[in-house]
User: Fold this.
Amino acid sequence: MTIKKSVTPIIIIIIFLGLILLGNMALNSSAESDHSDTIHLRLGQVKAASHAVSLGIDKFAELVEEKSDGEIMIETFHDGLIGNDREVIESAQMGSIAMASSSTPNMTSFTNYFTAWDLPYIFETKEEVYTAIDGKPGEIVRDQMENNGFKVIFFPDYGYRQIVNNVRPVKVPEDMAGLKIRTTNSKIEQADFVEYGANPTPVAWSEVFTALQQGTVEGEGNSYSLLWDSKHQEVLDYATEVNYNYSSDIVVMNLEKYDALSEEHQQIIMEAGAEATERQREIANKNDDIAKQEFIDYGIEVYEPTEEEMKQWKQASEPVWDQFVVEGIAEPEYVEIILETLGKTREDIFE
Assistant:
């Protein structure tokens, strides 16, 4: 009888402790469930946080959070914090990060359709750029990128590349003779500068400022806004506004991660991308105009070629089309689709 009385309280205590333990496990389980309900995605790219592309990406992340009521959170990493162009794109392809952005000249290793976008003066105005990207040429690229494991979310406006240097004023192609010019990995951009008489030198973006300081290169081709945001005005003296190449950026998501989302979340991401595109284009055009004026105010000599001089720039680069508009490089059929979409011909560009 005494034993039974002493055992009973022990049993009660054990049951009580068990209930507490089960309660804690339930609470922890609930907390983990709440945490797992939020989808966290990382997006990496190299441009300065103040650049129009970066601002557009931040707007995209904001819209996704808003439209999903916080169910999807996108953490953005600018300034190359988690890798250069190639590293973040490859990380997204492998799934190490969910998303990445890069300028399209760096994407030609994934599809040669981007090679056509690099052709000098294929896009002569921003209106032509948007018509092509939003139309059939853009859809073809989107489909092709899926074959490489990417879902294209949107194309931020990067802007026209201008020619800048720290050696001498440049008005016509002949003035480029012998200048060491930094380029991207784009074979077409490199060929442009060969035709202008310069010496193209591919350099990783993160190394360009130092290369200009040390004389490894003497100039580059880039948009006003990116140059200003990256403080390249400190190592430059001259700019020539020739619009020789338009570069778009591209925001992509790992296709498997995208496919794993619910249809509702997929729709939210694509809608946010479309809305961010409109806002980002406004920012890009405004910021490029502001950056150009800032260049002038800083003391950079900015030259705008006359109509006749612009013809010289275009005609000097036309042989690049002969070299690259061939099967296996800039596919002639795809180039023709772009031109038809824009309602013009090659002759219209170079006449």
